[in-house]
Amino acid sequence: MMLQKFVDALPIPPILTPKWKNQFYTYYQVNMTEFKQSLHSELNETTVWGYEGSYPGPTIEVGSGEITFIKWINNLPDKHLLPIDFTVHGAHRDVPEVRTVVHVHGACVEWESDGYPEAWFTKEFKQVGPYFRKQVYRYDNCNHACTLWYHDHTLGITRLNVYAGLAGFYLIRDDRERILNLPSGKYEIPIMLQDKTFNKDGSLYYPKQPEKPIRELETSIVPEFIGDTILVNGKVYPYLKVEPRKYRFRLLNASNTRFFRIKLDSGQLLFQIGTDGGFMQHPVGVKEIMLAPAERADVIIDFSNLEGKNIIMVNDAPAPFPTGTPTDENTGTVMQFRVTLPLSSVDTSVIPAHMRPFPKINGHLASKIRYLTLNDNMDKFGREFMLLDNKQWDAPITENPILGSTEIWYLINLTTDTHPIHLHLIDFQILDRRDFDVETYNKEKKIKYTSTAIPPEPQERGWKDTVRANPNQVTRIMMKFGPFTGLYVWHCHILEHEDYEMMRPYIVIR
């Protein structure tokens, strides 16, 4: 379906008001419901799921160290909006069809409030999963200023719940950010990138079967979901009118599978000031920004001296990445900036030369090194499924870091896909990536390197919670575990992979 581009304005999600706030803590209630929303003026309204009646959900803004309590409330219908495959772990017929659990992605949080995939709950908490512990989650927000996001994380149906619309921004502020004099207020805008496919009637299309259908199953999980239409903040190909001045954009890839490699068709630089975990040491001026699902980039775009110009944000990442189909005029177009608003006041904001020190973790402090493979397998229906360390979700826990210890993980990718690997609770540093011989590894279980170590890209030199592990490469990450103990998960953030076995529990122990 060809939808006209740049006919609808970019929506900016509202900031959520707390129900209660005093000097000790803040309390929010967030309702999940089904409703209709216009995603493009040429489409009928689309039935979606969202938080507080909007897709994406409202932006939650908190201060660093502010103790925040959130009651996530499931008021969704009993029937799912999208086709469920009951052969997927956690989604068998013995659990309710519609269930939710919310994860604040990148949060430093006690495990009982992390949104563990088996801590799901239904309407009025009538039924809950085996790991459900509390109705009101507590967030200590022990992060520096950064761009986080919240989304559904239910075992076996995460891909469907997020695709239906359950995602929103969660921003942490601090004093350091305030003194940097960055573009702020209406000049700071969150940008959530997603892809979808629509039926003729405007409803969301999600495949019931892979390309080679599985005859024995009415509905089967697909190896990836690639939509043919790009949405920003829940609008198809929107435009944004801007003044000729600097703007700060918080880019988030909230797609199921699609990677974005973002450029501006004006050829101008994007000044990146932050990664997943907050500010980098210095800004980097880059022509393009690569974002795998769940990765964020905090950028400044300078529109001064561009009065009257239209600038298109484009994407040229093949899907699935890196060997999939190249983008076309639809999937290669993201949104348009129109530099048509008059300058309302002199722009005194800056791109700071120095933002925050980025102390490198000392590699010699690592008390443990783990070698973990990313594997490709076949199930009894002949479907491909991916594993971490060749283990399924239900296998005994093998990653059990000690509180306060530092570890290096070698992510050994034996598949042909790039996998965005996300660890809950902590931020890590990317050490390097290195090509290796996959055949030798498969035969002898030995890593035979075929190149020297490749340092992280300039745009990854900061704290990360999601890393792109490329095919034929060993990706090394290093992190310190804490400040909480308990049960967390690590997984691939391609949601179709995560839902079909590419997720493992891990436990931080005393």
Structure, described:
- Residues 44-91, 99-175, 205-325, 384-508 form the Plastocyanin-like domain.
- The chain starts with 19 loop residues before the first strand and ends with a strand.
- It contains four helices and 31 strands.
- The chain has 510 residues and is mostly beta strands.
- The protein folds into three domains: 20-176, Sandwich (Immunoglobulin-like); 185-338, Cupredoxins -  blue copper proteins (Immunoglobulin-like), CATH 2.60.40; 363-508, Cupredoxins -  blue copper proteins (Immunoglobulin-like), CATH 2.60.40.420.
- Strands 10, 11, 12, 13, 15, 17, 18 and 20 form an eight-stranded mixed β-sheet that branches.
- It has helices at 158-163, 175-179, 438-444, 495-499; strands at residues 20-21, 26-37, 46-51, 60-63, 68-74, 102-105, 136-139, 146-152, 167-173, 188-198, 204-205, 229-232, 235-236, 239-241, 246-253, 260-264, 270-275, 278-286, 289-291, 296-302, 310-315, 333-338, 368-378, 384-388, 406-413, 419-423, 429-435, 466-469, 473-480, 486-492, 503-508.
- The chain is globular, with a radius of gyration of 22 Å.
